[in-house]
Specification:
This protein is mostly helical. Helices cover 84% and strands 0% of the residues.
């Protein structure tokens, strides 16, 4: 039963990624949408994403499955709007290769999380503290403009989210509850892990357009 539940989680994870990349590509080909997203609407979209993420995390057990799915797909679509910039900045071949590399890393650490006998839950607080500290340093670096610090933080955050993949897979299996809402919740965690791995790899190794 747990394997069936995990399969459901991965189906929703895949649907979320598909929605994001379809919306991102379509938006990148539409000048009107691009101008809308990256004008004053950008921060509105960002705040909506943040609000949806908090709502899903806090209330998913108490909402209908339809609402949970709608919020998850809505978040994926909003992310796609801001993701559209990668199709403008980076070459499409580079995006494809980085996506495949991200998928490979994701699969490896998913298998580690599924099969390891080590209790990874004890490391959750350390991952969170490291992530929080890294985000604070990233904000500070907006003013420092240190390229070296930027690259170091990019590698550190990549390592954090790679570790989160194994952690979240184990958490999903340990807190197994065969319901659509919990499948969405698990998919959302994995979606955030993958998106952050992809973005950091793209930033490190992506080839920009001329």
């Amino acid at each position: 039963m747990k394997n069936e539940f995990l399969a459901k989680v991965f189906r929703w994870f895949g649907i979320g990624l598909l929605v994001t990349f379809i919306v991102a590509y379509f938006t990148s080909t539409n000048l009107t949408l691009i101008n809308f997203v990256f004008s004053g609407a950008y921060w509105v979209i960002f705040l909506l994403e943040l609000g949806l993420a908090i709502w899903l995390g806090a209330r998913i057990r108490n909402m209908s499955s339809g609402l949970a799915k709608g919020l998850y797909l809505g978040y994926s679509a909003l992310t796609g709007l801001t993701f559209s910039s990668i199709f403008i900045v980076y070459e499409i071949e580079s995006i494809i290769w980085i996506f495949l590399a991200s998928a490979f890393v994701f699969i490896i650490f998913s298998l580690i999380g599924k099969n390891t006998q080590i209790d990874l839950s004890r490391y959750g607080i350390y991952l969170f503290v490291l992530l929080l500290g890294s985000i604070i340093l990233e904000v500070v670096n907006i003013f420092l403009l240190s390229q070296t610090l930027d690259m170091i933080l990019c590698v550190v955050i990549l390592g954090i989210f790679v570790s989160y993949v194994a952690y979240d897979i184990q958490k999903i299996l340990q807190r197994y509850e065969d319901s659509d809402n919990m499948a969405i919740y698990g998919a959302f965690d994995l979606y955030l892990d993958f998106i952050n791995i992809f973005l950091r790899l793209l930033r490190l190794f992506g080839k920009e357009r001329d």
